[in-house]
Amino acid sequence: MTQTFTRRLIFTALVAALLASPAATPRGQQPPPQAGAPAYDLLITNGRIVDGTGNPWFRADVGIKDGRIARVGRISPAETRAVIDARNQIVAPGFIDVHTHVESIYNQPAAENFVRMGVTTLVTGNCGSSATNVAEFLGRAQKTPLAVNLATLVAHGSVRQKVMGLVNREPSPDELRQMESIVEQAMRDGAVGLSTGLIYVPGTYAKRSAPSACGARAR
Hints:
Layout: H1 3-18, E1 42-49, E2 58-65, E3 68-73, E4 83-85, E5 90-91, E6 95-97, H2 112-115, E7 119-124, H3 134-139, E8 149-152, E9 154-155, H4 156-164, H5 173-188, E10 194-195, H6 209-217
Parallel strand pairs: 1-4, 1-5, 6-7, 7-8, 9-10
Antiparallel strand pairs: 1-2, 2-3
Helix pairs in contact: 4-5, 5-6
């Protein structure tokens, strides 16, 4: 990984996402530094800040301490350990891409194609296709840390295929109970909702009752 990319990764995935952090100190206020230590670990200077509230952009510096935004305002480089000059660049909260298909993201954990566009959170499992073992899928981040935040939906099509294969018929009552159980467990394990892909096999074989029953378990 090049030094340039490392700086971009820090700038986009860490600083931008943290602009929405609840731990941020109100603009213009500065927490007292420890004696003999720099007030900030990192300073993003000269940036144009778009804070996501709908307000016009404003030019300011961002001071980061212990992974959190400590101050937004005018900050001297003498107060920090490291400086990134964001002149003519936008500093903003990380973007959220709510429609992705990144079940293979652990093969490319740097997620450069997203990070370089300012995307710091991904929602996968769309269009009726997802991992069905959500605990295992999200848990892989413990061994393979990702450069972005990751959330997943649990998908009706994948759940149906796990229980019934690709047959073109309605589920039996027992099969429907199995599907509901998988969805319910996925939600307990961290899924953020249910997706359907009723124009894709096997979702196209489903009548309204089965997706609706699974959806009830996703509430």
